[in-house]
Design goal:
two-stranded antiparallel ribbon, 52% helix
Amino acid sequence: MNAQLIISHLQGIVRRVNDFGNEDALVALADLKSIKAAAEEAIGEIEETAMIEARKHPGKTFEWKGMTWTIVDGKRNYDYSGNPDWVIKKLELDAIQDRMKVAAAAQEKGILHQADADGAEVAAARVTFSKPYLKVG
């Protein structure tokens, strides 16, 4: 089965749910999430082999079978935990965040002012919420 047939099938599921209303949205979402997980697993299983093939082409960007491919280098990460000054400041920052979370929780309960152990007022963290989603299990 080629990719376009799979994509057309997925688009058909969406149309039957959204446009025609003749497919159960919860069942369709569960099916699509299963398909997504299977696709991600399959990608993971061939990605290394595909990278080996891509490195056979000259340059980081190349044309192959009507598609433009680009080899993207891995992201550079830094680990600061070997620096004692950084570790101390990180612990201090974590403690400030914890106090601000407590102050935000207190505000939600109607307690408008929260003080730390020294009596200094603690500013409440600004609380935001991510978009709700459905979990299928």
